[in-house]
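Handout, section B. The chain below has 315 residues.
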Amino acid sequence: MSDGGANNGVSYAIDARGLTKIYDGRAVVDHVDIQVPRGKIYGFLGPNGSGKTTSIRLLCGLLTPDDGTGSCLGMDLRTHAAQIKRRVGYMTQRFSLWDDLSIRENLQFVTEMYGLDRPRERAQDALKALGLAERAEQLAGQLSGGWKQRLSLAACTIHNPDLLLLDEPTAGVDPKARREFWDEIHRLAASGLTVLVSTHYMDEAERCHEIIYMAYGKIVARGSVDDVIGHAGLSTWALYARDLNALRRELEKDPAVSTLASFGESLHVSGTDAKALEAALKGYETQPGFAAERIATSLEDVFIHYMAGVKDNFA
């Protein structure tokens, strides 16, 4: 198997340039560049309908790009789609295994689909690795969300892929199961596996080595979490008042305000012009119960800011 593309000494598991997919005359993925170094965990963020799932399907050979070039694990996205599929593990948003088969039967069947030898032994190894052995004979359709998630991860890694593509894998899963899932992802990455995972959870994004923010077909930001927050250039304040709803209604009209979000007894307000925002807030100092404190901008603040600043290509 050929090695991944390299640039400036970095070996890339994914190296796509100008990736484009058009549906009904609209670019769902619009000349996107995606580079993911080997052995890293990259988070893929963006609102629903932003093109993340389509991008993932282009990268693993399930869809053919309408424009652009690229490689996945050193293989051309257009001419080696079948080979790419065999070296990639793809976990879809929805549970896609067989409800009327047991956990063991599902894993053994997936092993046979890949044409691998020793299907029973491989299934047993996967059961042990993902903590599924005690539930091996339970029907998949009877599992909770967290256990289905664990089974899905076992199924998409049973053939020892070099790249793992996860499409919102923890949606609807409780916090404990999410944490255990991410611990497993980091264990796999430490062994050399590359991971690209789409998520709406900011705490999950913060567990990635770097993130890619996509909105309506285009890449808006990329880099480490600290880099993305810093490049957004937001100034953020926590506000307190007797009537936060009334304060919010007033601030929504102010051009110095980019985003507003309620957090318990406070209101978080962000703007790209720090001086203009501070001046705007001073106008409320005489209101009863009003207080303001400068706080660190969070990834969620940036996420909301970018969502507000891009145009929906389906509008």
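Note. The chain has eleven helices and 15 strands. Compare this with the example in section A.
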